[in-house]
């Protein structure tokens, strides 16, 4: 049932504040402001490295997770798309653990990667939405994302719930490994607990702007997304979401890679969507934006209040989100990324919930 929404995708985008709060309450004790993790599945305090594997949007949530585990828990993460991971014959040892991220829990390549790691004697964690799935069954420990059924083929609420779970795991791992203090854990948990309120505020505030921007975006044939740090996987996710439902060609790049190739493409016919909260990388990303502007590129700037005040570059549009803690920015910035893809597809008249050639669950190679 779509309720009063035109598509399941729209409904699922708007469900995010609610489902993320379910997801978080499974991992966080809000009273003591601590993360609680079951160490019997994976003992994050002891593992030497994490191998992470997934496909599509689930892979991109894993890529954000890599930044978090490495920064907050000082735990090295090796991550790859499952269709490569399963054939790479990656050397693994028993003191490592492996995480597999899958909404459906049935993706063939992800499952094959899981079985490869199992044969190597690794502890296996499954981050899944469908608890009765094959990946859940074959994991030593299941980390449910509790997003509820996701019907739209393009993943939205599963993505942000995967992020919420990965953030919780990274904080928990940081505590176990002694790389986060109790005060830091509390501070991060407080930030996570603000997500439902912040996300619903953003969903209300940016809706009209996203619709009118989507009308403009639907006139272009190529779009480039740029981001740095955790905004880099978000740029990849923006490009994936736009291409799969609107069929507009889109690419995501690490902002610093701009001058190593894609800058050759910049002209007034290819808008550049820059995802840049005012974080440690902001100045760097703004200098990449300057390079785009200097070549006549049109910029759609997705930033926060501080970022909007700090950059004076002319843009085609600036989307201003509230200033939030660095940890939760990916979940907040996911919202304009999803809405822009959604409304652009609606303008293009595509089948938003069932894009051509795509299946919700890819159970063949
Ligand atoms: C994109 C999308 C796909 C899936 C991918 C993995 O919006 O939905 O890229 O993320 O097919 O599916 P799961 O998570 O079921 O393994």
UniProtKB/TrEMBL annotation:
One of its GO terms (molecular function) is glutamine-fructose-6-phosphate transaminase (isomerizing) activity. It comes from the Bacteria. The keyword Transcription does not apply. It catalyses: D-fructose 6-phosphate + L-glutamine = D-glucosamine 6-phosphate + L-glutamate. One of its GO terms (cellular component) is cytosol. One of its GO terms (biological process) is amino sugar biosynthetic process. Keywords: Aminotransferase, Cytoplasm, Glutamine amidotransferase, Repeat, Transferase. Its EC number is 2.6.1.16. It is found in: Cytoplasm. The active site is at residue 360. Residues 40-179, 213-355 form the SIS domain. Its main location: cytoplasm. Catalyzes the first step in hexosamine metabolism, converting fructose-6P into glucosamine-6P using glutamine as a nitrogen source. Involved in the production of the root hair deformation (HAD) factor specifically on medicago. Homodimer. This is Glutamine--fructose-6-phosphate aminotransferase [isomerizing]. It comes from Ciceribacter ferrooxidans. The chain holds residues 244 to 608 of 608 of the full protein.
């Amino acid at each position: 049932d779509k309720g009063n929404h035109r598509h399941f995708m729209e409904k699922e985008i708007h469900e995010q504040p609610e489902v993320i709060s379910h997801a978080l309450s499974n991992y966080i004790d809000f009273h003591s402001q601590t993360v609680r993790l079951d160490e019997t599945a994976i003992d994050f305090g002891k593992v030497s490295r994490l191998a992470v594997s997934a496909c599509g949007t689930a892979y991109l949530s894993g890529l954000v997770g890599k930044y978090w585990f490495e920064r907050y828990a000082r735990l090295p993460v090796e991550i790859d798309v499952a269709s490569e991971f399963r054939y790479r014959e990656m050397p693994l040892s028993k003191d490592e653990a492996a995480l597999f991220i899958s909404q459906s829990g049935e993706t063939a390549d992800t499952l094959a990667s899981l079985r490869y790691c199992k044969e190597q004697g690794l502890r296996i964690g499954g981050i899944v939405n469908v608890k009765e799935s094959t990946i859940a069954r074959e994991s030593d420990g299941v980390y449910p994302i509790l997003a509820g059924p996701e019907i739209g083929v393009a993943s939205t609420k599963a993505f942000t719930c995967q992020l919420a779970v990965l953030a919780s795991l990274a904080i928990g791992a940081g505590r176990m490994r002694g790389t986060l203090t109790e005060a830091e854990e509390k501070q991060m948990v407080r930030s996570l607990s603000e997500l439902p309120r912040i996300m619903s505020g953003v969903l209300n505030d940016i809706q009209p702007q996203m619709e009118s921007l989507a009308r403009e975006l639907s006139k272009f044939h190529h779009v480039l997304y740029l981001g740095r740090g955790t905004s880099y996987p978000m740029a990849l996710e923006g490009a994936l979401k736009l291409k799969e439902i609107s069929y507009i060609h889109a690419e995501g790049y690490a902002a610093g890679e701009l001058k190593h190739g894609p800058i050759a493409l910049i002209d007034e016919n290819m808008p550049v969507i820059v995802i840049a909260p005012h974080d440690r990388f902001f100045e760097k990303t703004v200098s990449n934006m300057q390079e785009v502007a200097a070549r006549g590129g049109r910029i759609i700037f997705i930033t926060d209040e501080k970022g909007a005040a700090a950059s004076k570059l002319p843009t085609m549009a600036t989307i201003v989100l509230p200033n939030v803690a660095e940890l939760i920015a990916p979940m907040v910035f996911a919202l304009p990324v999803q809405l822009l893809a959604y409304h652009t597809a609606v303008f293009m008249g595509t089948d938003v919930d069932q894009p051509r050639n795509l299946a919700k669950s890819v159970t063949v190679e």
